[in-house]
Design goal:
The structure is a single chain. By secondary structure, the protein is mostly helical. Helix content is 78%, strand content 4%. It folds into two domains: 35-141, no CATH class; 145-297, no CATH class. Strand 2 and strand 3 form a beta hairpin. The relative contact order is 0.08.
């Protein structure tokens, strides 16, 4: 056993073997040097920015999915397309660095990984790894322009839906934009309460659940739509609960630790509802699949 291990080690470090792996090692070193800054900034945002915290989950899951899927038996290098993707990634990295635009700088890293995958393993392998690449892309925080364009409409929608729920409970409400006036207090639906954070996280998890549990694109799209609907509705319920507790229990429940805790608990509810929707769609899909198989097998 020891002799076999030594022989395998000698084979691994033989000059011929090392020479064959030299281009791959050089590509890895070049990738690390070129994308060290965007990788560091991305990891820093994952750790420090609550809006980007879902990346701490999505990045490891993406790596695990790559390992789980493995390399296709028919994987074959596609040098031309791989070089094209790598050149595009390098140009995007250079231009985004000049413009100090973080999203495109970080996306260039994903594009470079796609280029390396295509160069060494081919386009079929890249398509086989579509889920980890998609999740890693979703782990990149949105550009400020897009966030700003989405946040205000989400604030207004949450305000309208929350005010409607409060009126349904016979609480006098006066709505002015994202300000809800209830008896003795004003509720401000701020950017943090817009629901964009939970929407981004639930969309990512909806894509993951759909890819792992479901077979057809239609079923996966339905799960994604359910995740969006759950995120919007639960955020409106959060606004309603805040107003309800402020009016009938204690105004302090609308701020600080209790308000944050309420948000986390409702996100867990959102996650459970999304998972439940995925399970239900999976059950329906399974029944339809069995009926179709039975109909095809029937004489």
């Amino acid at each position: 056993m020891a002799e076999r291990s030594i022989a395998e080690l000698n084979s691994a470090i033989s000059p011929a073997n090392l020479a064959g792996r030299a281009p791959l090692l050089l590509a890895g070193v070049a990738f690390a040097v070129l994308f060290a800054e965007p990788a560091y900034l991305l990891a820093r945002d994952w750790w420090n920015d609550p809006e980007a915290g879902h990346g701490l989950l999505l990045a490891p899951v993406s790596i695990w999915l790559v390992w789980r899927a493995g390399v296709r038996a028919d994987a074959a290098p596609n040098r031309f397309l791989g070089i094209g993707l790598l050149v595009s990634a390098i140009l995007l990295r250079y231009v985004s660095g000049l413009a100090a635009e973080l999203f495109t700088m970080r996306f260039s890293m994903v594009l470079a990984l796609a280029g390396l995958t295509t160069y060494y393993l081919g386009l079929r392998q890249l398509l086989s790894w579509w889920l980890p690449f998609t999740l890693f892309t979703l782990a990149i925080p949105l550009p400020e322009v897009i966030k700003s364009a989405m946040t205000l409409p989400l604030q207004f929608r949450a305000s309208r839906m929350g005010a409607a729920l409060l009126e349904w409970r016979n609480i006098p409400v006066e709505l002015n934009g994202n300000v809800i006036q209830v008896p003795g207090r004003q509720l401000f639906v701020t950017e943090a309460c817009s629901g964009l954070r939970s929407l981004t996280a639930l969309v990512s998890l909806g894509i993951l659940m759909g890819a792992l549990w479901l077979r057809t694109p239609v079923a996966r799209i339905l799960v994604l739509a359910a995740a969006v609907g759950v995120a919007l509705m639960v955020n409106a319920v959060r606004v309603f609960m805040t107003g309800f507790l402020v009016v009938f229990v204690d105004p302090k429940l609308g701020e600080g630790f209790m308000h944050i805790t309420e948000g986390w608990l409702l996100f867990l509810v959102s996650l459970a509802l999304t998972a439940g929707a995925a399970w239900l769609i999976g059950v329906i899909e399974g029944r339809l699949h069995r009926k179709r198989v039975a109909a095809e097998a029937a004489p």
